[in-house]
Amino acid sequence: MKPNEAECWIVNLIRNARLNAKIDSKLGHVVMGTQPLSPYQQLVEKIDSLSMRSEHLAGLIERKSKQKNPESIDSWNTIKQ
Question: Has keyword Repeat (predicted)?
Fold first, then answer.
């Protein structure tokens, strides 16, 4: 692809995808920007991440305890029911 064709293709990509980007013709670079997240969105993402990590750690703890004492876990499950 010739440089002019490539530049047109990139410009169309930026326009069609509505990307926050611009082309630096002198350096031949595409500079991409990101939109900052709102504090609310940052909090929601952090909570989701912590929730998934907590579930994963709980699963690991349960598996480890089953490996060490399979009888005590079975008796605990019958007590809970």
Answer: no
Secondary structure (3-state) at 43: helix
Q: For the chain, which residues make up each domain, given as ranges? A: 3-32, 39-71
Q: 21 - beta bridge partners?
A: 32
The HSE-up count of residue 33 (CA atoms within 13 Å, CB side) is: 7
- Alpha-carbon distance of 81 to 65, in angstroms, equals 19
Which pTM does this prediction carry? 0.43
Model confidence pLDDT, tens digit, residues 19-32 = 788 888 788 788 88
The count of residues in the chain is 81
Phi, psi of 38 (to 5 degrees): -70, 155
